[in-house]
Amino acid sequence: MLNSPLHLECMVRQSPVDPVYIFWYHDSRMINYDIDRGVNVTSDLPNKHSDLYIERASREHSGNYTCMPSNAFPANTVIHILNGENPAAMQHGHGRSLNMLSCPSIWILIPSLVMFINSNSN
């Protein structure tokens, strides 16, 4: 819902080495450092984990979000920011080896999303 928090998590699983970086993209724009647009990204690379947090999501935050670790396939989801009282925020996930788990927080109308990314070791 408009002006609600949006939280996306990305975790790299089954990777023999830590990622050097985890970049977040909104549509085709890398947003790791877009503090002026309300985006806050934190990464814990030894634990292969990154969080994207937007305190007050607006319609401009709708779109395709991609988590792109340096050593794994990217995963993405589409977020729709709705204006109104309807809690049915929509998400669509895509990507290789992507499992999505949606777990809404109490009365937050945009559910959290956890992306699990499996890397292939050849």
UniProtKB/TrEMBL annotation:
One of its GO terms (cellular component) is neuron projection membrane. GO terms for biological process: synapse organization. It comes from the Eukaryota. It holds the Pfam family Ig_3. Residues 1-79 form the Ig-like domain. PROSITE patterns: IG_LIKE (PS50835). PANTHER family: DEFECTIVE PROBOSCIS EXTENSION RESPONSE 13, ISOFORM B, DEFECTIVE PROBOSCIS EXTENSION RESPONSE DPR -RELATED. This is Immunoglobulin-like domain,Immunoglobulin-like fold. It comes from Cinara cedri.
